[in-house]
Every structure is written in C-alpha cells, then in structure tokens.
Design goal:
Length: about 210
C-alpha cells in the first residue's frame, strides 16, 4: 500500500469518526464553540479511538495485508459514518433527556451539568420559542413582537442579533395588532439593551396562523 494512501487512511481513522460523532451529538445538546483547538482535537481523537477499538482487526488487515475493495468499502462506511452517527444520536439523546444525571442525582451524587450552556442567551435561545417579547434598544425605543418558529436568534458568542418574525403595534384602543405588509424585523446585536419575555399580550390581536 503506498505511504500516501496509508497516511490518508490514518488521518481518517483518527479524526473523522470522532468528528461525525461530535456533529450529530451537537444536534441535541450544547457544545462549547470556544474550546481550544488542541482540546477539540483530543476530543475527536479520543472518540475516534473508542470507535476504532471495535475495528482493530479490520484496520490491521487493511494496513498490513490489504482488503478487497468491497470489504474495505463496507468497513470504511461502518467506521467512518454508521457507527459514529449512531453513537452521536444515542449520546445526544441521553444527554438531552438527562437520564444519566437524573439517575446519579437520585443516588445522592452532586453532578455539575456539563450540558448547561455557559450564557443565559444560549440557554434561552437554544430551542424554539413561543413568546411575546419587548425588545428595548439602547436608544430607548421599544419593539413589540412575537418570537415563534420563524424567528431567528444568533448562536454566535460575539454577534447576538435577532430576527423577529412578527411585529406588533398598538391598535389605538389599548390592544395590539400585527404590523401589516412586513415580514418581520432585524435587530443588530449592538442595538439591544434588554429583552423582556411576556406570557401574553393584551387582546385583541390577530392569530399567528392567520398572519403567516
């Protein structure tokens, strides 16, 4: 086997399974986006090594003896994609449901929740909202709106901007109604002072489903 090909296989074995595992798990739980690259690489290497244990015999044969193309393709698919995707889904689901931490807590173990986002922003906006909001800008102006599934909240740790899909205005009679002829409003991160979450805006107001 050519040395270049062996080097490519080694890189794939050491990094790709762990990365696929990480990506799939990230769909379910928060992962620190500011982690140092060496710690992130060690994380990928550790997960890839764990998966590689189950394919040690196949890796040895591929490295020293060679495998036929069909057998090699099957092993590569299982190791690089099928097993990491399954592991990421399983671990992400368990961490999201917090079954392990709940069980340990019932056994009187004091567990620090590693799934907990490091900021209130991330904790609030890590899942879809169904909230009326009042956004107060640094200028003192206020934006009344509804943040539902169509709204967008930035997940970037430095640029925390917002897109509010439904904007409200006073109807002049003490109630609220949706602003007509608008597809929402964008609010830049450097303009936001506070965001207040309201359980319910005073009626009358149109139904969300009719406004979309």
């Amino acid at each position: 086997m050519p040395e270049v090909f062996r080097s490519i296989i080694l890189a794939l074995v050491l990094l790709v399974p762990g990365y696929v595992w990480h990506v799939v798990e990230s769909l379910f739980v928060y992962h620190d986006q500011q982690i140092q690259w060496e710690k992130f690489a060690l994380k990928l290497l550790t997960r890839s090594t764990f998966i590689g244990i189950f394919f040690a015999d196949a890796i040895y044969k591929a490295w020293w003896q060679g495998l036929d193309s069909v057998h090699f393709g099957v092993v590569a698919f299982e190791m690089l994609f099928f097993v990491p995707i399954t592991a990421g889904f399983f671990c992400g689901f368990l961490r999201q449901k917090k079954w392990v931490t709940t069980l340990l807590a019932k056994c009187n173990f004091k567990i620090f929740d590693l799934n907990r986002p490091p900021t209130a922003w991330r904790a609030l906006f890590s899942k879809p909202l169904q909230n009326w909001v009042i956004v107060t800008l640094k200028s003192g102006a206020q934006i009344y709106g509804y943040m539902g599934e169509s709204s967008i909240m930035s997940s970037h740790h430095q640029d925390r901007d917002l897109y509010i899909s439904h904007v409200l205005k006073s109807d002049g009679n003490g109630g609220w109604k949706f602003v007509e002829d608008t597809n929402g409003i964008y609010v830049a991160s450097n303009e936001i002072s506070t965001i207040e979450f309201i359980k319910e805006i005073q009626e009358p107001y149109e139904k969300i489903g009719q406004d979309q």
